[in-house]
């Protein structure tokens, strides 16, 4: 059964996770051009190389910050409890994306696929609030 979803009175966005993906596309558009210059394979043929635990943490935190930024932009009360992610989260996202692409050899499509998978897992498991505290510590560094 398809999940219609909507923004509830409490500000909780219950729309399907796939609507969050444009947030990643917009943030990726802000990534340094050199980091995005690699050719990308069609989505159906995305082959994912193994990535390190550090790179996965960067992707997971980037996804978490993007989800929070999306919630804050849409007035989600739970997202408002976190520091503003519009600028700091975007900067982290861009730097982390460039680092992972460079060090792990991912192209833009692979990065988007990996980031979307991390966001989907956070969404599906409801673990965003458990992940964010350690991610916020990365913003301090």
Task: Outline the structure in words.
This protein is an all-alpha fold. The chain has one domain (20-30, 50-140). It is 61% helix and 0% strand. The chain has helices at residues 21-29, 33-36, 53-73, 77-80, 88-104, 108-125, 128-140. α3 (53-73) packs antiparallel against α5 (88-104), α3 (53-73) packs across α6 (108-125) and α3 packs across α7 (128-140). The longest helix has 21 residues, at 53-73. The protein starts with 20 loop residues before the first helix and ends with a helix. Mean pLDDT is 77; it is low at 1-21 and 28-43.
Give a short overview.
Keywords: Signal. The chain has about 140 residues and is mainly alpha-helical. It has one domain.
Gyration radius (Cα, Å) is: 15 Å
**Estimated helix fraction:** 55-70%
Helical stretch tally: 7
What is the number of independent domains?
1
Sequence stretches where pLDDT stays below 50 over 5 or more residues: 1-21, 28-43
- Helix and strand content put the structural class at mainly alpha
Count of strand segments: 0
The description of the largest β-sheet is: none
The succession of helices and strands, N to C, reads HHHHHHH
Q: What portion of residues belong to β-strands?
A: under 5%
What is the rounded distance between the termini? 44 Å
**Whole-number mean pLDDT:** 77
Shape: globular
Keywords: Signal
Keywords:
141 residues; disordered N terminus; 7 helices; mainly alpha; 61% helix; single chain
List the helices and strands and how they pair.
Layout lengths: L20 H9 L3 H4 L16 H21 L3 H4 L7 H17 L3 H18 L2 H13 L1
């Amino acid at each position: 059964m398809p999940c219609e979803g909507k923004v509830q009175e409490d500000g909780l966005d219950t729309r399907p996770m796939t609507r969050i993906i444009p947030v990643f596309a917009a943030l990726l558009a802000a990534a340094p051009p050199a980091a995005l210059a690699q050719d990308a394979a069609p989505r159906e043929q995305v082959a994912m190389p193994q990535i390190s635990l550090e790179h996965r943490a960067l992707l997971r935190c980037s996804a978490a910050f993007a989800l929070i930024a999306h919630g804050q932009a849409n007035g989600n009360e739970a997202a408002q409890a976190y520091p503003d992610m519009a600028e700091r989260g975007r900067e982290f996202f861009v730097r982390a994306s460039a680092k992972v692409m460079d060090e792990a050899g991912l192209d833009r499509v692979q990065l988007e696929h990996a980031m979307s998978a991390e966001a989907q897992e956070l969404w599906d498991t409801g673990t965003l609030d458990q992940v964010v505290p350690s991610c916020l510590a990365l913003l301090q560094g």
